[in-house]
Design goal:
The complex is a heterodimer of chains A (144) and B (500).
Chain A: E1 4-8, H1 13-29, E2 32-40, H2 49-81, E3 85-92, H3 94-104, E4 109-113, H4 120-125, H5 128-135, E5 140-143
Parallel strand pairs in A: 1-2, 1-4, 2-3, 4-5
Chain B: H1 2-15, H2 22-41, E1 44-47, E2 50-53, H3 54-69, H4 73-76, H5 78-86, H6 100-111, H7 114-127, H8 130-155, E3 158-159, E4 165-166, H9 169-179, H10 183-220, H11 229-244, H12 249-276, H13 281-294, H14 301-317, H15 323-328, H16 336-343, H17 345-368, H18 378-389, H19 394-424, H20 428-445, H21 450-492
Helix pairs in contact in B: 2-21, 3-8, 3-21, 5-16, 6-16, 6-17, 6-19, 7-14, 7-17, 7-18, 8-13, 8-14, 8-16, 8-17, 8-21, 9-10, 9-21, 10-18, 10-19, 10-20, 10-21, 11-12, 11-19, 11-20, 12-17, 12-19, 13-14, 13-17, 17-18, 18-19, 19-20
The chains are: A alpha/beta (144), B mainly alpha (500).
Chain lengths: 144, 500
């Protein structure tokens, strides 16, 4: 198993904390970081024709926003620290996609931030961290 | 700006129906127009004493031809279509684009409409039980027509400067004929089609839908909405306005999410009703087969039943109209033919499954009690069939009909819009004008009776089949070539299967 770690970011504070934590750890053990932004998307949703026609355009915009706004600044930070890293921006169901990427990159851990939602909201929509913990093949570190 | 326009429309519409007799007046005015348009489009020839509209013959011959020419793709391609929808061939490295499932769901939302509930009742009333048989045959053959038109829709679509896409028959007519050195003819056809789909969008995709939604609401209200068609129309128009002009996407999004579940809910209860009528099932099925070939009690006999069945099938699944290819053109795929495969599931779901179920609900009720519906027709007749067994069902049915009507209107507003932008460009002002016209017709649809309205929308939809099928004949060799090459590459493993 390679000495690499997957860290999930999404522009939220939780994602920022996960990145910060992963960064500190990487400084100590020299691990490689796979900085990942999964844009929530499902191939099984129902759309209007207009949404379909604009889909390609929106997809490009979403990728650009995630890259410019979140992933590129994170990469710049890691570069300044001299930490080896790779970035991934992709669409998909979050937990499932993170697991696929973890397998693909053969990582040791997944670092993820906590969204801090509770009660009805997480009951209805589930929580990425919760799903991930239940199904991940590698240890998951949930950064509070 | 939007609010100002809304207020303006409201004032215009309200100043119109000042007296209760408005609906009647309007009907008197539209009936002769409907008759004139209908007799032009449905120019009939006499075969064995039955009156056969040439345009129906045109569609049937087209569908039969494509079924043979594509090597019965409607049977052979069925399994592959399901694999595509399931995402077995989706490239895991490029997620986030419109999936095959989404393209199918959107197109089905557009076709599963009032036609599946009310149109079938109309077919059975005029064409007898035998019309159901021909309806199913038409759905089966229509799968091939859809395959051809949706493949072409993706192949010849246009990418707009802003990154969105526009496609459909007008584009494959223009570009496809150009590629065959017939640019001038292609341009003419494209323009003709664009005008046709724009006008057709106001009929099948608009007035017919809002009209039937009103009829069903009125039935549930026990006639309490008599003479209030204008009011229901106005409310419906306002909601459509909010979505297509106001850009309130949440309404459309909620509808698009509910409609598939409504369709499943509808089928489920329909099957329950059929099972409750179980003693009548054998006779009802017998009637469908015997009626198909004898046409007992139907004007024009078996041929009469056939004509009605085919006419209603097209009206419901839209194969040959070309509308679905506008919806499918949005999918980004390196293989246009994959959208053709996926689209052949639409007539199957729409006609062979849902319409047949409705026909059996009506058929079994008729066997049990020939006069179960009184003189009700259309949606009201289907509703009565449900009510015989499940007394409260007309209420959810009315709600379902309203949603089906609404989602079909949203889809068709887009189809019509693409015709309009093909003609007048993608300019924002022009699009708003189109959308205003569309909303006006939603309101209008509730003000007229079913007879003339059905005649007008039928006529307009069948009119655009003429250039569309003609274009499909010319371009079918291209589709066939693509299909054969694709099949060979799937067989050789060059096109990879990722799942399953």
């Amino acid at each position: 198993m390679s000495n690499s770690v997957l860290v999930a970011v999404d522009g939220s504070e939780g994602g920022g904390r996960a990145l910060q934590y992963a960064r500190e750890r990487a400084k100590l053990d020299g691990a490689k970081l796979i900085v990942t932004y999964v844009i929530e998307w499902s191939p099984y949703s129902f759309n209007t024709p207009e949404e379909n026609a604009e889909r390609h355009m929106r997809r490009e915009q979403e990728i650009e926003r995630a890259t410019e706004g979140v992933v590129a600044p994170a990469a710049a930070l890691l570069k300044a620290d001299g930490i080896e890293h790779e970035t991934v921006v992709t669409h998909g169901p979050p937990a499932e996609t993170l697991i696929k990427l973890a397998e693909k990159h053969n990582v040791q851990h997944i670092f993820i931030g906590r969204r801090g939602q509770s009660g009805i909201k997480s009951l209805l929509f589930g929580s990425v961290a919760g799903n991930l913990i239940q199904t991940s093949p590698v240890p998951v570190v949930v950064v509070p | 700006m939007v609010r100002l326009l809304a207020a303006l429309i409201a004032v215009l519409l309200f100043s119109f129906p000042a007296h209760a007799g408005f609906d009647d007046t309007f009907n008197e005015l539209t009936a002769p127009v409907a008759a004139a348009v209908g007799s032009f489009v449905f120019f009939k020839i006499s075969i064995f004493g039955a009156q056969l509209p040439i345009v129906v013959l045109w569609l049937v011959i087209g569908a039969v031809f494509f079924t043979f020419y594509m090597g019965f793709v409607n049977i052979g391609g069925f399994k592959h279509a399901i694999q595509l929808v399931r995402g077995d061939y989706a490239d895991p490295d490029s997620p986030g684009e419109v999936s095959h499932f989404q393209a199918l769901a959107t197109a089905v939302s557009g076709t599963v409409g009032i036609g599946n509930i009310g149109g079938v009742a109309v077919a059975v009333t005029i064409g007898g039980a035998g019309a159901t048989f021909w309806l199913i045959v038409a759905g089966f053959l229509g799968m091939s027509t859809k395959f051809v038109e949706c493949t072409l829709g993706v192949k010849y679509r246009q990418e707009n400067p802003d990154g969105s896409v526009s496609g459909g028959p007008m584009y494959y007519m223009r570009k496809g004929f150009e590629a065959r050195g017939m640019g001038g003819f292609g341009k003419f056809m494209g323009t003709f089609y664009a005008i046709g789909i724009f006008i057709g969008a106001l009929g099948i995709g608009n007035m017919f839908q809002s009209n039937q939604a009103y009829v069903q609401l009125n039935t549930v209200a026990g006639g309490g909405l008599d003479g209030l068609g204008w009011l229901v129309g106005l409310i419906l128009a306002a909601v459509v306005f909010a979505v297509i002009i106001g850009g309130i996407k949440s309404i459309a999004r909620v509808t698009e999410k509910i409609v598939p579940f409504m369709a499943i809910f509808y089928c489920l209860f329909a099957i329950i009703v059929i099972l409750m009528n179980f003693t009548s099932i054998p006779e009802a099925i017998g009637n469908i087969f015997s009626g198909a070939f004898t046409g007992a009690g139907v004007q024009g006999g078996a041929i009469g039943a056939l004509i009605i069945g085919f006419q209603r099938a097209v009206f419901s699944n839209e194969a040959g109209i070309g509308s679905a290819s506008i919806a499918h053109a949005a999918v980004r795929t390196p293989e246009p033919v994959t959208e053709g495969y996926v689209s052949l599931l639409e007539p199957f779901i729409d006609t062979i499954v849902i319409c047949t179920i409705t026909a059996l609900v009506i058929g079994t009720s008729q066997v049990a009690d020939p006069n179960f519906a009184g003189d009700a027709t259309g949606v009201a007749m289907t509703s009565a069939a449900f009510e015989r067994q499940i007394s409260w069902f007309p209420l959810p049915l009315a709600f379902g009909a309203l949603l089906f009507a609404f989602s079909t209107m949203i889809s068709w507003s887009y189809y019509g819009l693409k015709g309009w932008t093909y003609l007048f460009g993608e300019g924002h002002m022009g699009q708003t004008i189109y959308k205003l016209i569309f909303c006006g017709f939603v309101a209008l649809g509730c003000m007229v009776q079913l007879g003339p309205i059905l005649d007008i929308s039928d006529a307009l939809v069948f009119l655009i089949c003429v250039p569309n099928i003609l274009a499909l004949y010319f371009l079918a060799p291209i589709v066939r070539r693509e299909m054969l090459s694709y099949k060979a590459r799937v067989a050789s493993g060059e096109i990879k299967r990722y799942n399953g």
